[in-house]
Amino acid sequence: MSTARMENPVILGLSTQNGQMRGSVKPAGGPGGGGGGPQTTQPAPVKPSSTVNNGNSQPAPTANTIIKPGDDWKKNLKLPPKDLRMRTSDVTATKGNEFEDYCLKRELLMGIFEMGWEKPSPIQEESIPIALSGRDILARAKNGTGKSGAYLIPLLERIDLKKDSIQALVIVPTRELALQVSQICIQVSKHMGGVKVMATTGGTNLRDDILRLDETVHVVIATPGRILDLIKKGVAKVNQVQMIVLDEADKLLSQDFVQMMEELLSYLAKQRQILLYSATFPLSVQKFMNSHLQKPYEINLMEELTLKGKVHCLNTLFSRLQINQSIIFCNSSQRVELLAKKISQLGYSCFYIHAKMRQEHRNRVFHDFRNGLCRNLVCTDLFTRGIDIQAVNVVINFDFPKLGETYLHRIGRSGRFGHLGLAINLITYDDRFNLKGIEEQLGTEIKPIPSSIDKSLYVAEYHSESGEEVKL
């Protein structure tokens, strides 16, 4: 059994066919699936030696802040040079929304445009309107895709300058990230006439932070240990905080921080809004969400990246393996149809089958696949038990299973009745715990895929005449 380890991702259209797809025949080896162009970058983090008063300063309002009725306020903006570099689809694949569509304060829009943010990125399109409604959010997106703007824009829009209290907390795992986020927050809010932003992190003078909190502060951007210390000392009053953001939540909810985060939340009002942003969703994030979030709106933009990378890997396998027939497993009916459509677009014929299809359609697909009318079948675990198709010599877990029993039943679809078979798993970063668990349950090691696979391991005509079993 070999495992292809990959980490990266295309939204595909749903198919309404009855499980049979026939792509046009094409030469082996399709086009590549990597993302092109450099990532867009957020403002560079402030170096510890630079003079920003630990993120506590606020630029003085400019003359442009005062807008008279009838003025074309956009003409007065000091826009940065346009960024003409190529950008990847995780930033450009938007719905076409504009920042003005969200009914934001004009002064906030001015700061947004002067940051060089022309239009909302996908994560901003998904997050901003939901966050403005006051609903909890669980969002998954890569760094460098506008994540900071996705939560800072609604956070600043909801700040009430008439209240001299901390109204929003942004918790981050490192001092560098706290300084970077505070710099962005200060710049975006510079025309808003008095939003007070403070960064507080470990490793800096606690006395300075205590003195700063004697004055008005609306937004605190902090590392967990420092803000918890200030709260316990009675210096940081957080009883009127209406929004708390956990940026890089997977790190904040790891063993190093999770107890501090639980304690921190105990000081906040029960009617607060929680926004979680993370590149991965380990079990710790899921557990925290179940305990503290109220019917969160879930955003997952990483799914597209994962699917894109896996499809590219699958295309490579098709071009390099000698497949008689293959079964490709997914964990949901929707994924089955998405993948089947993508495989057909790559030029390979495939069928698909899942439990939501009508029984007569499933029967027809199974009959035709068994009779060799198609080389590839995409399916759910509906197809793992009691199905014997001797021509199947390759099984691919496109989505890795969660249980050892499921894994055994899946890979058992190849190599029936003593014939040879090959099982390949496409593993993402999120699958690492399931992979380790299944290896422990089954007392085996699922090895990385080698650069070349010996055909005698899974192709009958290459099998040793001596009949000796060849192990991976």
From TrEMBL:
Residues 128-299 form the Helicase ATP-binding domain. The lineage of its organism: Eukaryota, Metazoa, Chordata, Craniata, Vertebrata. Residues 69-81 have a biased composition (Basic and acidic residues). Residues 1-81 are annotated as: Disordered. Residues 48-65 have a biased composition (Polar residues). Residues 313-457 form the Helicase C-terminal domain. The keyword RNA-binding applies. Residues 29-38 have a biased composition (Gly residues). GO terms for cellular component: P-body. It comes from Cyprinus carpio. Its EC number is 3.6.4.13. Keywords: ATP-binding, Cytoplasm, Helicase, Hydrolase, Nucleotide-binding, RNA-binding. Signal peptide: none annotated. Residues 97-125 form the DEAD-box RNA helicase Q domain. It is found in: Cytoplasm, P-body. A motif (Q motif) lies at residues 97-125. GO terms for molecular function: ATP binding; hydrolase activity; RNA binding; RNA helicase activity. Belongs to the DEAD box helicase family. DDX6/DHH1 subfamily. This is RNA helicase.
